[in-house]
Amino acid sequence: MSYQAVQSLADRIKHNIGEVIVGKEEIVELLFIGLMTSGHVLLEDVPGTGKTVLAKSFARSLSLSFKRVQFTPDLLPSDLSGIHYYNQKQGDFQFRPGPLFTNLLLADELNRATPRTQSSLLECMEEKQVTIDGETKPLELPFMVIATQNPVEHQGTFPLPEAQLDRFLFKLRMGYPTTEEGLRLLQRFKERNPLAELQPIADPTELAKAQSICPSVRISDDLLRYLLEVVEATRRREDVAIGVSPRGSQALLRTAQVHAILRGRDYVTPDDVKAMAKPVLAHRLSLRGLTRAQGQGEKIIDEVIRGTNVPTEADLTIG
């Protein structure tokens, strides 16, 4: 598969999902980048902004198996992974897989589950496998978690710890539609449900080919140093208790490579790094005396980007 084919695939996905979701092309593009880098996405917004519909449209467009789990305080890790049960007819124990065994898992209101259940996602998100009763079972690829949480209602919730947040490639907000977008949305849904009519435009085999070519996008050593300087600058700020981890710097590299492909290039530029910095890095910051809900993480990343010297064109020459 060529870079142009990956770009064409992304355009087709945005157009297809655009038959259902109005005005969220940037969010759809970031979901695609997340899938290409085998990452996971946290959608944080108030109820009713289309998070579930977006996840369903994304899965249906790509012929991905889809399962949704409503996270509640009484949800157990075994409710996600599955259990071994005794089959009286067979006279033996058999495994009943849980909803983790899918291509795209929608973890709805993730922060309503207890820390024990939240932590049960760590292994599957990082290693694409699940350990059940001492037996490790690989998950079907591609595997992606799209989790949601309500940033306003905090009663009965368990805030995601830093280790859990760091597993998410992006933290995104859907936002309310504009007046024009809201009108188009009402016109589209007044007589039919376009999600029910949505047809797939790709399959997991095509996705696997696209994923395999993304890491080959070229990036110069000077640009790698620039990327690392941005990350390290977050660790030196007085208003940041814990800066971006090495996992975060790797995520910024991978997403910048895919972003370059979607802009028609086979090499990364500083603009690709800047474009991916906030959605990749902001939620990984542990701030002193501030809350993430106030958007301080995004402001800090903006300041870091402005304060970091960009390599010159001569420095960015790629051999």
Descriptive account of the structure:
By secondary structure, this protein is an alpha/beta fold. It contains 14 helices and eleven strands. It has helices at 3-17, 25-36, 51-61, 77-81, 115-119, 121-127, 162-165, 179-189, 194-197, 204-213, 221-235, 246-262, 270-281, 296-307; strands at residues 41-44, 66-70, 82-87, 92-97, 104-108, 129-132, 135-138, 144-149, 170-172, 240-242, 286-287. It has a five-stranded parallel beta sheet with strand order 2-5-8-1-9. Strands 3-4 form a two-stranded antiparallel sheet. It is globular, with a radius of gyration of 20 Å. The mean pLDDT is 89.
Question: Brief description of this entry?
Answer:
The protein is α/β, with parallel strands linked by helices and 319 residues long.
The strand count comes to 11
Helix count from the secondary structure assignment: 14
Profile the largest sheet. Answer: 5 strands, parallel
Spans of at least 5 consecutive residues with low confidence = none
Which CATH C-level class of the largest domain is it? Alpha Beta
- The CATH level-2 architecture of the largest domain is identified as 3-Layer(aba) Sandwich
How much helical structure, as a percent, in the residues?
40-55%
What is the straight-line distance between the termini? 23 Å
Radius of gyration over C-alpha positions, nearest whole angstrom = 20 Å
Query: How do the strands line up in the largest sheet?
Result: 2-5-8-1-9
Let me know the average pLDDT.
Answer: 89
What's the structural domain tally?
Answer: 2
- Global geometry: globular
Q: CATH superfamily membership of the largest domain, which one?
A: P-loop containing nucleotide triphosphate hydrolases
Order of helices and strands: HHEHEHEEEHHEEEHEHHHHEHHEH
Structural class: alpha/beta
